[in-house]
Design brief:
Length: 386
């Protein structure tokens, strides 16, 4: 049986259920295809905290508890190992089994370059870097901030569908970036019907994220916050509810007031979507997604396409998302609609609500035809494992 290691942040992003689904989609999707897929995650002990957010030993941390709960929930306990930077496993992880798997692995899927342990990184026959943050990854690479991490991989994938294409401002750094759509597990995200629920569009988002702003060639690129502010007045134009499960710091109180004054409904993402099942209920409990994107994704015309959107689409929930330049690579207009300004966003909402069943069916069809993990990962394996 072909052995694949999937490396990615789970414990590092405790209670971020959307991020958990990204890693689960790769690991479970590969297992669906008959591969012996392992989840391995590297974590720095000094970053670990307890349930109250206070520093804690890794063995007693909320990070480990979250990792264990998620892998247990999805039947991955025997194929998931959390390791420290020196490769020492934590919790139930079996160091010998992991080393044996790495020694015969045909492929390492290194999501955002999480894994750097030399023995585990170098053992698989081929190493693939998966970029989830187009613009950040490439500019950090140019500035030397990644320490040569990209060169230690044989292939480079990105959810920035336009990276390396005309019109995209992101430098390739001399690497060949292959576009990859985020895979979605259709059996986990069932089509829940075409009937129109209450007109309530949702999204799950981080106001600023953890990276700060990027500067390149004298230009300062924006974050999610900068784009969200542009669309603060959108609810005033609609006979629909717009709700964001928004991770926003108390210091951004002025922005909270801006959004709420304009009619946005805000929810605590940990309260409404704090584990993978709750996240799924939150997505499927709305009539669709409406979301701005990170400023850098928009301004560079990266073609970024988010994994959160795939969950809505697979559920038969239309997605209305900010245009990042993904259009030439992915059909849109029904089920998936893109906007660049307030007028386009308002028009897209009205279009969806005018014939909701049509757009719900189109959303699921798009997921089946373009995002199904069997299709996305199957095509990758054909290229990466000849």
């Amino acid at each position: 049986m072909t052995v694949v290691l999937v490396a990615g942040a789970l414990a590092n992003k405790a209670h971020n259920a959307g991020e958990a689904w990204v890693r689960l989609s790769w690991v479970l999707g590969l297992r669906r295809l008959g591969l012996d897929a392992w989840l391995v995650e590297q974590i720095e002990p000094r970053t670990c905290v307890d349930a109250q957010g206070r520093p804690a030993p890794l063995e007693q941390s909320e990070n480990l508890a979250w990792f264990d709960a998620v892998v247990e929930r999805f039947g991955l306990r025997e194929r998931a190992v959390l390791v420290q930077p020196d490769g020492t496993p934590v919790g139930h992880g079996d160091a010998h089994a992991l080393r044996d798997a790495a020694a015969v692995a045909d492929l390492l899927i290194n999501i955002s370059g999480n894994l750097t342990v030399p023995g585990l990184l170098q053992s698989p026959r081929r190493r693939v870097y998966v970029d989830l943050d187009p613009g950040y990854t490439q500019l950090w690479h140019l500035g030397g901030a990644l320490g040569g991490a990209l060169e230690r991989h044989d292939h480079h994938l990105t959810v920035g569908l336009a990276v390396g294409r005309r019109g995209c401002a992101i430098p390739t750094g001399g690497l060949e970036w292959r576009a990859v759509l985020p895979p979605v597990l259709l059996d986990e995200w069932r089509h829940i019907g075409d009937d129109a629920p209450a007109p309530r569009f949702t999204t799950v988002a981080s106001w600023r994220g953890g990276y700060g702003r990027l500067e390149h060639d004298g230009r300062l690129y924006g974050q999610k916050a900068h784009e969200f502010r542009r669309f603060a007045g959108l609810p005033r134009r609609l006979a629909a509810t717009l709700e964001a499960a928004l991770d926003i710091h108390p210091d951004d109180e002025a922005d909270v007031k801006l959004l709420q004054t304009n009619g946005w409904r805000l929810a605590d993402p940990r309260a409404v979507a704090g584990d993978p099942d709750a996240f799924r209920r939150y997505v499927q409990g709305s009539c669709g997604e409406l979301s701005p994107a990170q400023g850098v994704y928009v301004e560079t015309r990266s073609g970024w396409f988010g994994d959160r959107t795939t969950a809505y689409l697979a559920s038969g929930r239309p997605a209305i998302v900010q245009d990042t330049g993904f259009g030439p690579q992915l059909p849109h207009g029904e089920g998936l609609l893109a906007f660049a300004n307030l007028e386009e966003a308002a028009r897209a909402v009205k279009t969806v609500l005018a014939d909701y069943p049509k757009h719900a069916r189109a959303a699921r069809r798009l997921a089946e035809e373009h995002l199904d993990s069997d299709r996305v990962l199957g095509a990758l394996l054909e290229d990466l494992l000849p």
